Amino acid sequence: MDAPTRNDDKARYQRVAYYPGCALEGTGHAYNASTRAVGKALGLALDEVPNWNCCGAMEVKNIDPKVQTYLSSRVMAIAAHQMKADVVMAPCNGCYHNLKKAEYDLEHDATSREVVGTIARKAGHDPYHAGEVETIHVLDWLKHGIGEAGLRERVKHSLKGLKVANYYGCMYTRPRHIFPEKDQGPGSESTSKPHFMDDLLEAAGAENVEFPLKTACCGGAHTLSDSDMSTRLVLNILRAAELAGADVIATECPTCHSGLEMHQVRAETVLGEKTTVKILYFTQLLGIALGVSPRKLGVHENVSDGLAALKAKGIV
Amino acid sequence: MRSLAEIGAKLDAWTPGAESAGAAGALLGLAEDVLECWIVARGDTPTQQTREGFRLLALHRQGAQDAPSFNACRETCREIAYHYNLLDTQAADPQSAQRQRMMALLVRHLALFVEGKIEVDRLGEFCCASRPLRQSPSAST
Predict the structure, then answer these.
(1) CATH assignment of A6-137?
(2) Are A125 and A77 spatial neighbours (Cβ–Cβ below 8 Å)?
(3) Are A204 and A287 in contact (CB under 8 A)?
(4) Which of residues 79-108 of A touch B (CB under 8 A)?
(5) Which of A82, A187, A205, B73 is the most buried (most CB within 10 A)?
(6) Which of A111, A212, A233 lies at the smallest CB-CB distance from B141?
(7) In A197-229, which positions are buried (b, 16+ CB within 10 angstroms) versus exposed (e)?
(8) Is the ipTM of this complex over 0.95?
(9) A167, A174, A183, A218: which to substitute to probe chain B, counting the most B Cβ within 10 Å?
(10) Residue extents of the structural domains in chain B
């Protein structure tokens, strides 16, 4: 059988199973709204996975990674067995990472297969088997489902003049071994210098700045145990973005986004360090370029006043 | 070896220099000191070897042994090396001062990351390559 091509991806990505995950029902509500709105504007369909559960996030993974593997595999089992889908799209980096990790573990680790099989049978469903679905990120969905050329054709309000620092966070590309499709040459994503978000926003007219902290740690791990450390890490990211000349930091992870927004405020109130760069989900920026109203994209829900930056540039 | 507090104080007091190669060398030295702190804290002796011409990258590799989530600072180290090369080879570039400032922010990020990692090491890893609390070397699968 011939290897799948990007054209195959384009066809398969027109309608995908959608796994929003817990964050997108809470702090990442605007990411959920803007992802759905962009999909609708581009004619891409999302079928939400029914009765989905937590991916195991960080809490379960730290206590028992095999249980986390099961939790993530259950989402994929529903998509594969009930929905008969062959692609699951997860916009949250944590969910995306965990589903990819579960996929890798189930392919390579017999103990994981045994544990998942045991729990799945107790839960009354068939266990998920590696290879039954493909897990993708919203960046893959848009990059391969529409592509830059398709996006350019549909842009109504160019982001011209907007300087963007694209921040991918740490979980989109790490650890590298769970993302076998990345680092595969032209057209594939890079784990050391990811560029899919840069490519899409450039197609929408934005000017991407050189941003060397695009995959650096935002201190999410320390948010509860040592908030000052998180604040200092975020402040450093914000300063680097400003030094690079960015008006806006584009995000593609609800945890990173919340962290950047909250610690930007905290840096000013606790450390007396003010930064002015705005923080928006990349789906909000794409939605604006596609002519979707900022309200439908949840821009008003952001802590950071991105709308002001967009108005100042004459984009909205 | 300088402590993380001493490195932080150096970075606080740091300003771009007219001689960019020298400034880049000083910042690279601070970055190496940061990784030495991590390696010494784990009971190892920092390597004197280099990778791709940089001791910093060899130190990072050493620091990531048995600590996969330490790879979360891999790209930061590579960006520090890249900025060093820019400043070392393009000393007269008009962007020199800005590149020095960016390199200093990169070194600070590395220092903050390592400070945080030292804090949470052995409490269970949170981020990109989880190491569970219950996992002992003998229980490793």
Answers:
(1) 1.20.1050.140
(2) yes
(3) no
(4) 97
(5) B73
(6) A111
(7) bbbbbbbbbbebbebbbbbbbbbbbbbeebeeb
(8) no
(9) A174
(10) 4-123
